Amino acid sequence: MTMEEMEQMEYELRSVYSDPDVLLNATINAVMRALCVPAKLLGYRYIFLAVRFIRTRPPKLRSTTKKELYPYIENCMKTTKPMIMRTMHYAIERAWERADPDVLYSYLGLRGKNRKDPPSNLEFIYLIAERVRLIIGDPLWEEHYQRVMSEIGKRYPWLN
After folding, report:
1. Cα–Cα dist 99/49, whole Å
2. DSSP secondary structure letter of residue 120
3. How many separate helices (H) and strands (E) can be counted in the chain?
């Protein structure tokens, strides 16, 4: 999918859906499809749940960690943490293989990282959540996002 097609998809999403819950679900699905995450994989559902979990939390509680996120998915999907981590990572790897690297980098805003290496599960989830925020619009998210991205920048300096 080219950048022009992605921008057209975002415009259509904003104009078609008026219910915030339906808009959130449709936007997450559209972004994940635009990033070539295979919908038939179980990891797709786990990533979808993770992004939805982050986006539906109050802004003060959105600094989600693995200790909060994985147990939530475990309870929703009746599975184990290692299974969640493996299937998410597999889905991310497949997306990284299928999609055009230039489009991935420009769409997600990644800079400086080795283009062959996919991001970690949590990085990918936050990148999708940020793209969803840009499409839907959420001013309360901005402060939290800046704080999280500064923490990620400290841990992973090659992303800056």
Report:
1. 22
2. P
3. 8, 0
Amino acid at 68: E
Q: What is the DSSP string of 76-101?
A: HHT--HHHHHHHHHHHHHHHHHHS-H
Q: Which residues contact 94 (CB under 8 A, 6 or more apart)?
A: 36, 37, 38, 41
Q: Residue 77's closest CA among 46, 37, 113?
A: 46
pLDDT tens digit sequence for 51-96: 988 887 755 555 666 788 888 899 889 999 999 999 999 999 998 8
Q: Which amino acid is at 133?
A: R
3/23 Cα distance (integer angstroms): 21
